[in-house]
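Objective 1b. Sequence-to-structure analysis of SIS domain-containing protein.
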Amino acid sequence: MAEETPTMLTYVEQTPAQLKLNVERSEELTAELVDLYAQKPCHSIWIVACGSSSNGSQCARYFMMKYLKREVKIVSPATFIYGEHDLHEDDFVFVISQSGCSTNSIEALDELRKLGVTAIGLTGNVDSDFKDHADLVVDYGVGEETVSYVTKGVATLAQFLMLFAIEAGARTGIVSPEQRAELLNEMADAPRRHEIVQQETWDLYKRHQADFTSMTVVNHCGFLQGYGIACEGALKFGETIQIPSFAYEGEEWIHGPNLQLTPNYTVVCVDHLTEGADRIVDIYLAARTVTDHAFIVTNSERVDDDHAIRLPFEIKEPLMMPLYVLPFYQIIAHQATTDLHRWEKHPLFEERFRKAISTKTDTIDQIMPN
């Protein structure tokens, strides 16, 4: 009997086990990158990434800044190549591509070599094309993921970057042994939380299937790590459901993009659960004065349960929340696309656009055939 073809859901459901495995081998998983980072004092960290790799990095950025006490800059490969590469001699730079086949990321590795900087590549596939362009290839611990609409890879990337911050912080004396133990202990609970959010999301989807299968334009809002989650949600909705889907920092949204809001729009907000959390709830409630199609991830009592994803567990470090909130977006993207029969793209896109320009090397067909 032939095995079933994996889907996005396959890898959403596999994510808790991979998160568990990775936190249990935190020191081993991050050792190569930590060793290099600890060789000399770091001025700032540059992450060169786009798409879901950029979003996963955005999810981890503020955690990294907090526990490494360094600025973390995220720049797209093309922007880095075309001009934004004025590096300080003590900056720490790495390029991310889950597949290791993204042509722009490969070119960014080549650019690092031209600049005389160690070309470090983080990937989920160490035998990919990255190996021919990087001085050091680091496996960030995604395991296997053969569906191009990545899910497990985003959560495990965010986790790897957080684990790197913990271990590098511990190695350089910024994170105390007690802090390290507390952070790893809370992260060890992320798999359980992920499974809870999966169920919360299915319950929400069943209550509002009509809303989620009638979306025309979606605006996503958040601050800090909530914005990182919103960025990945916007990408997933756009590439799967095939509707206009945009992420905004909360204040950015209410300073212009909100002017197009109508009762037909969908608005999704992600509460970051720290300073400023009341503001994202204010934004959500304001959106609801215009559209009934508004939803939020929050524990705020100001919000009704019917339109909310709740996080019913003790959260000591909210900056970790992407590890278990991402399935909210991933499940809805998958199920709405399935219910709407939208996995196929427009015929002209398939016939013309794919042939006109490429973003991956030919190796992608072996790495992500689905």
